[in-house]
């Protein structure tokens, strides 16, 4: 493990530690449009906004950012399973999964051999085994399931019958999923059930108006010629081949189900959909480490802001042995229901969920005044007690959307505005969507009193530029990243007020953007003098970025100062650990009176 740690940290040591001056350029990565022998391969490249690309070049250096950008286009070559230790153990889970997970396929040849082996695989008795327990101290309940790739796929005589899928569908397939019907965009003519089809991806392209999209109608017929939609744009974007589970007509007639059963994949990873529910949870390694960094103790009262879908919430609850109280909040009704469902599946009773905007996590003074004195005092002085039987909470029961109805007082007619009519049409066409409740009961909170939690986890909404695989990044700009950072600072301001003196705040993101990571740490330490960075355990991530960045408009983005870089964890997607891009900072709250 020490060797892997040195390899990982070494890749960060050369980063700039002086002020960086930003100068815009129009350079960005391009993709070949020639119909070369490599057409039926997987060799994607990310298209970045030119100014954003230059910003990252300055932050990381050209070589390092090139490696990061390439790593983002491919998945991690292993799956990380967190075992619910209140119900099972790692060895028992491995035995249950063993019959369901075959060894990595050897029918296809790897396109290249790894230059650096993953340190997580060191000291394994059988390096070819599909399973291994994590050897990081304290994480022996984590199981790695190893995959492989990239592989060369034999597509037979060109041109093969083809299916084009959406970019989001392709990213899921690269992680081990099947091709589901909603993700199919186009298909060759005369495809019948049982045919072997090559699967390629349509990545968003920039239009004349500057917007991004796919100028293709779903259901487009492919003829196998250069006149086909996205013919040249699909060069090097083939993710494997499989068996059509429906005819071409069937794929565009039904609304759900598997469209293509993937047989040969560029990346061979295992799917754990609906397997051992309640016993295991598929989660990225840095996310598990973020829960450990919080160091929750039994009997404590903990707040998980922006908690959906509940992975870190349940990880914290298990570390606490389900003893104590975890408040999990999210602004979305449906996402709160997701947290409730996951907690119930895992048999956890210490988790209480609420619908609450993170920017309103601290209740207003007049709301505090409406609380009974004993509850208010307990909330401030005994943080393990509850304040939930107060007027500060409301119950929200939302039924599924009804688009038709009658009103007896208006002769059976209900007035519907044109705007509502358009919304109803979109709902009928697209389904409920994230912002439309599917029904269910959740509690609404008006916030919590200051100093009422022992620890707070703020896994902030972010640009998500560390998630893998990522085949598109064109929409993010310098301005959009600054807006993310402003939003995160406002949420952090709420978190600081809610933690009692002596408590802990853990801030994390899944982005490679220093403006949402190191710059937030600088903001926190400069504004709140009673905050200090604390060591994290376990620590396998690399150090943070030291220095600053000056933009053409005069704005200076301050990062870490010398000596602070080793107190944060930055997970590099191009490192031998092969994780997503992730960032963790841990703060200890001192006396707020000073």
TrEMBL record:
GO biological process: RNA methylation
Domain of life: Eukaryota
UniProt KW keywords: Methyltransferase, RNA-binding, S-adenosyl-L-methionine, Transferase
GO MF terms, alphabetically ordered: RNA binding; RNA methyltransferase activity
Active-site residues, Swiss-Prot/TrEMBL: 510
Pfam families on file: Methyltr_RsmB-F, PUA
CDD domains on file: PUA_NSun6-like
Ligand binding (S-adenosyl-L-methionine): 306-312, 330, 357, 459
Boundaries of every SAM-dependent MTase RsmB/NOP-type domain copy: 213-590
Family, as annotated: Belongs to the class I-like SAM-binding methyltransferase superfamily. RsmB/NOP family.
Protein name as catalogued: Methyltransferase NSUN6 isoform X2
Protein species of origin: Vigna radiata var. radiata (Mung bean)
Gene: LOC106765317
């Amino acid at each position: 493990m020490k060797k892997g740690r040195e390899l990982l940290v070494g890749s960060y040591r050369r980063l700039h530690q002086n002020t960086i001056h930003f100068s815009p350029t129009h350079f960005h990565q391009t993709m070949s449009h020639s119909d070369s022998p490599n057409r039926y391969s997987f060799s994607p490249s990310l298209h970045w906004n030119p100014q954003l690309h230059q910003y990252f070049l300055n932050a990381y250096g050209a070589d390092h950012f090139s490696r990061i950008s390439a790593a983002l286009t491919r998945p991690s070559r292993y799956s990380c399973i967190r075992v619910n230790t209140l119900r099972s153990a790692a060895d028992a889970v491995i035995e249950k999964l063993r019959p369901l997970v075959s060894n990595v396929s050897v029918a296809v040849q790897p396109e290249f051999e790894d230059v650096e082996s993953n340190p997580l695989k060191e000291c394994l008795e059988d390096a070819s085994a599909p399973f291994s327990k994590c050897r990081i101290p304290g994480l022996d309940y984590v199981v790695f399931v190893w995959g492989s790739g990239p592989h060369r796929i034999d597509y037979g005589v060109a041109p093969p019958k083809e299916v084009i899928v959406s970019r989001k569908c392709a990213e899921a397939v690269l992680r081990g999923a099947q091709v589901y019907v909603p993700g199919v965009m186009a298909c060759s003519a005369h495809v019948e059930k049982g045919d072997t089809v090559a699967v390629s991806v349509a990545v968003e392209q920039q239009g004349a108006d500057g917007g991004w999209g796919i100028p293709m109608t779903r259901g487009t017929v492919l003829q196998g010629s250069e006149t086909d939609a996205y013919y040249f744009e699909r060069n090097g974007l083939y993710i494997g081949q499989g068996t059509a589970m429906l005819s071409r007509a069937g794929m565009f007639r039904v609304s759900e189900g598997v469209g293509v059963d993937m047989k040969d994949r560029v990346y061979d990873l295992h799917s754990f959909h609906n397997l051992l529910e309640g016993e295991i949870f598929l989660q990225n390694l840095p996310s598990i480490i973020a829960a450990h960094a919080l160091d929750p103790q039994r009997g404590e009262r903990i707040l998980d802001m922006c908690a959906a879908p509940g992975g870190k919430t349940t990880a914290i609850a298990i570390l606490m042995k389900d003893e104590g109280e975890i408040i999990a909040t999210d602004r979305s009704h449906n996402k709160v229901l997701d947290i409730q469902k996951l907690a119930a599946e895992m048999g956890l009773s210490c988790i209480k969920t609420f619908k609450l905007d993170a920017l309103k996590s601290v209740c207003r003074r007049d709301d505090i005044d409406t609380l009974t004195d004993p509850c208010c005092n307990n909330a401030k002085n005994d943080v393990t007690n509850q304040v939930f039987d107060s007027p500060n909470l409301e119950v929200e029961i939302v039924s599924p959307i009804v688009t038709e109805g009658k009103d007896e007082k208006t002769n059976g007619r209900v007035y519907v505005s044109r705007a509502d009519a358009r919304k109803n049409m979109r709902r009928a066409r697209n389904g409920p969507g994230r912002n439309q409740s599917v029904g269910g009961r959740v509690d609404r909170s008006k916030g919590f009193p200051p100093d009422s939690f022992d620890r707070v986890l703020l896994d902030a909404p972010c640009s998500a530029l560390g998630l893998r695989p990522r085949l598109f990044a064109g929409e993010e700009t310098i301005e959009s990243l600054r807006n993310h950072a402003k939003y995160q600072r406002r949420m952090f301001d709420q978190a600081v007020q809610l933690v009692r003196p002596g408590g802990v705040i853990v801030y994390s993101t899944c982005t490679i953007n220093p403006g949402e990571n190191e710059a937030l740490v600088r903001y926190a330490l400069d504004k709140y003098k009673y905050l200090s960075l604390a060591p994290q355990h376990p620590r396998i991530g690399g150090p943070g970025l030291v220095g600053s960045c000056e933009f053409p408009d005069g704005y200076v983005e301050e990062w870490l100062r010398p000596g602070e870089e080793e107190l944060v964890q930055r997970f590099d997607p191009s490192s031998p650990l092969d994780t997503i891009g992730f960032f963790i900072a841990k703060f200890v709250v001192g006396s707020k009176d000073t």
